[in-house]
User: Fold these one by one.
Assistant:
Number 1:
Amino acid sequence: MSGFNKVVSSYQEAMAGLSDDMTIIAGGFGLCGIPEGLITEIKRQGVKGLTIVSNNCGTDNFGLGMLLEDKQIKKMVSSYVGENAEFERQYLSGELEVDLTPQGTLAEKMRAGGAGIPAFYTATGYGTPVAEGKEVKQFNGRNYILEESVTGDFAIVKAWKADKIGNLVYRDTAMNFNPMAATAGKITVVEVEEIVEVGELDPNQIHTPGIYVNRIIKGSFEKRIEKITLAKN
């Protein structure tokens, strides 16, 4: 990379510095808006003991689920895990630590972490196992629990377009957790469908400013469908 140009030419360069026992914040929702190539590179590198913060863990053989195959993940911080049988098996056998987190709380944990806010109060989860061991405080007669924010050694993100200095545009529902994840990594790596010159993106349409982004790589995407349901004739 030279100057403000954040484009890299290989996945190995994109994930340079990744090592065992790191925390990775990952964008995506199901298989929508996931950084497919970056996940594949993490699998190729074979790093172990990872903590992954993501809405879910892909499917058995795609997305973050691929990292479960070689037991590269030590802990998942997620809100939904229902499409992954290997995830269930590892959790029930005690091989995988899981911190189930309400979806909105998870998104706010990322956003707050990126904003430098160490913790926040939320009513979500009060009176449930989610609140066990957490500080409770009352505001205007309502009970709230204290949730700590999250940050990662890496954040891996999927965007639609980027310019060469890292300004990002997401597309439709593939936006999901990606904007919050992009702010929460010490090193934020973005995989995109298209890279354009600086000035080509409408400033009013930029979702994540380039100040949050460290590396960009142009990828190619399979875009699998997570589950297909066919109507009976």
Note: DSSP finds six helices and eleven strands in the chain.
Number 2:
Amino acid sequence: MRTTIFVPGDAAALALGADAVAAAIAIEAAQRGVAIRLVRNGSRGMVWLEPLVEVATSRGRIAYGPVAAADVPGLFAADFTTGGAHALCLGPTEEISWLARQQRLACRRIGVVDPRSLSDYIARGGGAGLRRARAMAPGEIVRAVTDSGLRGRGGAAFPAGINWQTVLATPAAQKYIVCNADEGDSGTFSDRMLMEGDPFCLLEGMAIAGLAVGATQGFIYVRSEYPHAVAVLDAALEEAGDFLGDFKVEVRKGAGSYVCGEETALLESLEGKRGIVRAKPPLPAISGLFGQPTVINNVITLASVPDILAQGAAAYRELGIGRSRGTLPFQLAGNIKYGGLVEVPFGLTLRELLYDFGGGSRSGRALRAVQVGGPLGAYLPESQFDTVLDYEAFAAIGAGLGHGGIVAFDDSVDLAKQARYAMKFCAIESCGKCTPCRIGSTRGVEVIDRIRAGQHEQIELLQELCETMTQGSLCAMGSMTPIPVMSALRHFAEDFGGKCE
């Protein structure tokens, strides 16, 4: 009888030596005459424990980590293939406190299934949502998504059901489902983890969306920096067979532009053009890819759909708080002790996420600031750490949850330098179509440099420049760049040598 051993093939685990560990396990097992089945699963999201090796036993899966290739002979000597005691043994994986305290829905199978096996996906509950959707009318599917309260997980948090209803109601011979997997925000990796660890969930969500609006063609636009995700998606599509029915999916690599995360720039890129934003209206739901009605959702949005259809809209809506329903996979990064993926219902506070899950700073110093929502998100001071993780609560303090990425900084951070980074990032990544973004960001870097050199009277000019960019930019690239700048000025004025009124 073969023992199943899981070694993550996730990009983060690979960066920490997972391939060497897998190779060492295969060699050691062969030398000892131990029959094993080696599965390259996704990461569970506990990055500080990677590579995390799991062994299937009669007591469930037993975890060991972090494992180096040099540890493998000792693990075999300790009979780890039956869950034997070892210094690296963490016990049953599902009982690890960091995992047990989460409530995973979209990410429930990440790290659990073999990402290249459709049969494993089905055995773990996959496909139930698609089967139910096939027995429903398109309008009923859209109503279920609407009633669930699901909002887009890509940043804007627009109700997904309204978007789908618009596409459904717009007559056209051809409609499209586009998955925005151009996950380019700093501190974000949930899309990558899902594509690498549970690709069939994404494909199922896209197929359900196709049934809902009458689309037969889907595209997954993956950033070029995610080669492992592309490889797993290609393998899953090869394996899918008739699982998706008449719905066809193509994987397209992005062109390396941050602004292609904006939906209309993404559409331009998909059409083979330069990735620059389109003026709206018309909305993509009415005239999107190749001028046809198009649903554009990000990975986690679409991956949330199968569970909504399988369990019912009411079950999903019961989770969360206010208008923020369901769960969101938060990503802890930066100067944080326990970085990784935490999926919980809306309603926790930022402080609970940072300390109960994150364990505080990795450096051991006090956390001074966190940036939530990517490089264009607000810098929040410790006095706002008790803000509830809720779209409206964050909007009330001039911030946003975005894609759920959280980057932590200890008390050694210079927020004026971080504000300069935001302007410089915009100057580099701007598509150049509108003047406030293209020129404003360049002038912003210059103004902040003068402020940091002691010309504190320039703070007022910086504020006026930010207002111009906010009001005049064509898309979120330029209009949101002032958010980190102004939040740094507001909450950390001492780093600029002046005060923000």
Note: Residues 415-496 form a domain with the de novo design (two linked rop proteins) fold (CATH 1.20.1440.230).
Number 3:
Amino acid sequence: MSRFFVGLALWALLLALAACGGDSKGTDPARDAELAEMVDTVVSTFEDLTVCTDKREGSTAYVEDEKKAYVYKNGFWVVDDSLTKEIESDLEKKSSDGKSNSSGKNNSSNPDVSTVSLASPCKTATEDNCEYGTLTDDRDGQTYKTVKIGEQWWMAENLNYAYTGVPFKYVSSTDSNLVYYSDSTSWCYDNDAANCAKYGRLYTWAAAMDSAGIIPGNSANGCGYGEICNLGIVKVRGVCPEGWHLPSIVEWITLRDAAGGIMLKSTEGWTEGWKKNGNGTDNFGFSALPAGYRYYDGFDDEGDHAYFWSSTEIAHYMDLDYSSDRGYLDYDKNLGFSVRCLRD
């Protein structure tokens, strides 16, 4: 199936989900009335927000059971901590004035919602005050640097776990005689082990999701190239170590909006840094390297791009570009990209 028709099918799925009816209001009419003065929409749960609301760029909403405000950016609902605090302050003031301040259920278990708050950069050219840790992968004993950004812990290095249990086969959609094989669905750039040590491995989306179910706790069986597997709002461990998961696109967007693309990119990269003076400032210790990608039977974009898989069906990956200070979203399941895991 061509990328165009896959895209049409996915958007048709989204349109069908969006046709479920009007907004689902909260359970306290008085509180809803107060909230409605501050946001465009009030809903009971995040599922109501993602499925049943009119999604317009810049729209605002409040989810009752999470007590969080959201803004609609670049096709996704993203937590807005500033608006949340403004609403809490206003409600508290009204409560102290004798007005209704009924609290909803306190349930913040939605796994597809990022809690990265807008934070001050912790690293400069001369000082590094970021909060770091380490992660040891019990499967192969490799140890990774981790970093806390907002309220989340991210891997500060790309995953280098050798997911080699499933062979790779790609058949060209335009020429059935062009068939590409590999004994693995993860690779070192240019098939050079030194690049795995530097960049980590490059994985297909199926491997990143652990579509074959090789890893315990997998929740994404059958997710791969040519398949549509709308998993909904769940954490997907995928190829990540135990206790960590493949970030959703919402979590990537929230990180990008909190930190900014240029501040996520490393100050070094290809031979002498990112190509064409595209180095970042790495102000949060995330240190994204321009690892490039693998296609069918070759490799490209080392020094130009850092591509990271997400667990989300639409917009599978985040792209940090040498020529831009912002991350981009796109989808193409059969290419080989990097993986950064997020702690559960």
Note: The first strand starts at residue 41 and ends at 43.
Number 4:
Amino acid sequence: MLTLMVCLFAGNISGQERRIVFLAGKPSHGYGAHEHLAGCRVLAQSIERALPDLKCEVISGGWPEDDAVLDGADSIVMYCDGGRRHPALEHLEQLRSLWKRGVGFVCLHYAVEVPKDSAGEVFLSGLGGYFETHWSVNPHWTANYQSLPTHEVTRGVKPFAANDEWYFHMRFQPDMQSVTPILSAVAPPETMTRKDGPHSGNPAVREAVGRAIPQHTAWVFERPDGGRSFGFTGGHYHWNWGREEILKLVGNAIVWTAKVEVPSGGLDVRRPTLSELQQGQDEAMPAKHDQAQIQAKFELLP
């Protein structure tokens, strides 16, 4: 497995270098979706521009060939396929060790899903919540986040609506212990049109949607070990990294998990253009790719 490391910048905060390591998963879906490596690069570069005193490293392949890469990391970001293909499944003990040292932990999109039998309790203790099959669901829908809680990770982020594969009805810590919802929206009835299945529906989620109970699609978790974690269920569409609200929110959260103060107005992010988002993807652009439609649908800069 070829491991690609992109050292974006080196800096020093209060005399001590702070490091964020992004673990980008292998190629997955078609063009414009699950672009793990390209998405990690966008996020890392955005943090770099806003906080030049941080060091970010982007590793391809899901997990580093040399575990020493993770030594001294202040936070680890996983953006990769999940379920039984999750790269963390063979490294759970190492993750536990990192968490005990207070290392931050972030999972984006499919990375929030792990098998209940082998890793559910581990992720519950390290991330605060996770996608549990036959309990959580993964429909595509437009979530309308009409209000945001007051928290470091929401600094400078305005309420917004966005279409994505927003997973919801996650399995959280009992009584939401130490978990703070960051993005919450009422899922429309259209999210329940599929038959029951491991990812599509079940009686419990149908009841919750029928009662219009707000569903949490992003959260922070202040762990008992003193570490900080962040789960974000969006991120299916690569194009949403061109949305200022999403880019700033996730960037803020990553920085927060590294225990770096988020600026009062949030990270000063520069939205990547559609042209920039098209660069460095795993898949080649399809011949019938409608750029104008993508730009309009995701409100992107040309």
Note: The CA atoms of residues 153 and 252 lie 5 Å apart.
